[in-house]
Structure formats: structure tokens, C-alpha cells
Automatic annotation (TrEMBL):
Domain HTH tetR-type: 8-68
InterPro entries documented for this protein: Homeodomain-like_sf, HTH-type_TetR-like_transc_reg, HTH_TetR, Tet_transcr_reg_TetR-rel_C_sf, TetR_C
Cited PROSITE patterns: HTH_TETR_2
Lineage, uppermost ranks: Bacteria, Bacillati, Actinomycetota, Actinomycetes, Kitasatosporales
PANTHER family: HTH-TYPE TRANSCRIPTIONAL REGULATOR RUTR, TETR-FAMILY TRANSCRIPTIONAL REGULATOR
Annotated keywords: DNA-binding, Transcription, Transcription regulation
Pfam family, one: TetR_C_11
Protein name, UniProt field: TetR family transcriptional regulator
Species: Streptomyces gougerotii
Listed GO MF terms: DNA-binding transcription factor activity; transcription cis-regulatory region binding
Gene3D superfamilies xref list: Homeodomain-like, Tetracycline Repressor, domain 2
Coiled coil: none
Tree of life domain: Bacteria
Amino acid sequence: MAGTRFTPEREGELYTAVLGLLRDVGYDALTMDAVAARARISKATLYRQWGSKAELVVRALRCEKPVFLDEVDTGSLRGDLEAVLEMTDDDRLEQDTALMRGLMQAASGSDELHDALISQLINPETDGVDTLLRRAVARGEVAADNPALGYVPHMMIGALAARLLIENRPVDRAFLRHYVHSVVFPALGV
């Protein structure tokens, strides 16, 4: 961020305000005026620091959900994916799934939001998964030519979306654990 410097605490307060508004009103109804009022900051500062609503929202999401997948290394792919599943709780999964569903819908009408989601949320997550998979290939757990390797992120994102669409139920760790064991591991031959 150029210009005004925020303490990590103040930046966290701002991101909390952004995410609160996002959950309350959704992306389309969220305004920089409302963020400025809730966070007690000037709208000019918001635009100077983040440039756009899309950038601010995605940075708030990234701050709330930092990616550390590449730091997970239990020595096996099964252990790594189990550890990743333990990184969040069921309430957080439900909130994140609902929030992402709304954002993906909004992104279908906004190239700026779509690009920000891809570059700052999706790509770091898929890069982390790729790191776990490369380690599994290097350890000999997964064949390097396994055609499912390139689709693991698709499988995981699909699990999140399909649970809501097909069953109209929130995603929880039990569902994800069963999905990983029933779909992802067999596809990878693990």
C-alpha cells in the first residue's frame, strides 16, 4: 500500500468492517461510502490505498484467510490433506462457502472482481495444492503422469459448490474429509 500507513491492527479492523458489510449486504450492495462509515476512514483513503471495491474486498478476504498450504508437510499426501482439513472449523467453512458463492455470482458480472479473485485468492490456493501434489510425486506416492493431478483444485472447488447446489447443505469438515477419501485419493491412486 502506498501513501497512508496503517498499523496491522487498524488494517485488520478495516478488513473486519469490509467483511461484515459483505456478509450483511453482499458484494453488489457494498459501497465504499458504507465501508468508510463503518471503518471510520475517509473514502479518499480507501481509494488511494486499494484503488477499487474489488481490490479492497479481495484483500480483506486474503487477510482473513491467509494461505499456508505450502508450509504443510507431514511427509505424506494423506497426512498433508488431513492437516489442511483441520486448518478451519465448521462455522468458518459455512461462512466462507456462502460468502464465496455470493462473490462468484457477483464476479460473473464483473471482470475486475473476477480477476482479483483469481489472482489473489484462487491462484494462491491452487499453487499451495500444487506444492503438496509435487511433493507427493517426488516421494513416489502419486504417478507423475496421473491425469487427475491437474484437476485436484477443480475437484475441491467442485465439492464446495456441489454440496450447496445438490444437497442445499453447508460444507463441513466431515463432508470434505469423506469427499477427499472417496474421490480425490482414489483419483490420485493414493
